[in-house]
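Pilot study result, target chain (432 residues):
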Amino acid sequence: MEVLMENLAEKELIALDHVKIKSEQKVNIPAGAKKLMTVTCQLLNPKVEVSQSEILVVGNLNTRLIFINEFDKYDSEDISEVFEKKVTVKGYDSICDVLARVELMKSEWKISDDKIDIDNSLMVHVWGVKSREMQVVGNLTGDVEVQKNEQLFLTFHSKLNDKFEISENIKLDNLCEGVLSVDVNPNLKDVVSASGKVNLKGVMMVNILCVKTVDGTSVPYNMNHEIDFAKSVAVNGLTDEDIVSGVVNTNNVKMHIENSNDGAILVLSCDISFDARTYCNRKFNMVTDAISFSKELTLQTTQLNCVEILPQVNTVVDIENNLNIASNSGYISHVVAVEGMCVNNLQVNVTDNKALLEGVLGVNLLLENEEHLITGEHFDVPFQTSVRVDNLDREYVVDASVVPLVVNAKARRGTELLIDARLCVTVQAETK
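Predicted structure:
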């Protein structure tokens, strides 16, 4: 009998750490601001640089202030500050290549001593990739009867980081007299691995806070626009059966307003970065039984730390909730505008092939009371939703992200708010 062995060099993914970091800012209230309405923060151009056991997190924290100026008109001001922080990786191994990505989880603010104190919470997700050599039985020949069982073995293939530009001309309505702010939120609809490439499809929601004049008073209002995008990213050696897991982020947002024969046009352009990992499915014929042989076989076993990855699920969910307004807020006639959407305190549980997501949607609302006075207030909206993930059981660790795309708010009976929102949900499951 002859045993033919096959030597393989594979890469396996190992979970290292999830690190929370804080960023504190002090921002001056704009000169000429009579009343501050709301404050929102965005993390733009996030980057991570890995050096052995340390990760350098870099990005631009963009703070937007919405206020009433000295002329009793709505105005806005953007303040950009470079964020830089070093993170130490737990469980680091010198033979391990480290991967990481960062996202803004929560932002809170308050006024203190004529300055705005802003506390931001960021999450750094850290993974490691180890190279290992393994030896498998390629074939048995001779006086041997073999029963074989074909199995798929998933291993890490490569890290992807690709950028592409999106540009769009958005026609503003005739009532718009100015733009206070523009927020862009990309959403992945589909990620498919094809022969030698990854195909992306998605939509980018553009939330525009405009201003108009009603009865001689400057009033803000919301306008929404959707931009569909598609992109193919080349990946050598990728097949149709392989798995891709990734997210999209917005970088380098640029905009200006042009006048045309059809009215005012918002010219918008930005870079979309696609950060992902790919995994290759390898097929092996595993020997489950060998009989009718005269030679003694010596078997050696090795413990492997393999990670099984389920295909990523991208979906959009709608949520709805009623909120009671505090008694000291007075009678609210209607909601003027919505700003600063974010998801906080996200928790994920696994049950019956479903990922149950619970969290809090934070929104800043501009409210008008019965005396036609407009105030800005922050509200936390609890929500719960479930996403089906095939082949999911309780042993899997689920990593999920939720990004608000569109939030609508209506006042009811002067004491309640009806909040309905559309959320982009990405779910990825893995187990050892």
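One observation from the pilot: The mean pLDDT is 83. A full batch analysis is planned for the follow-on phase.
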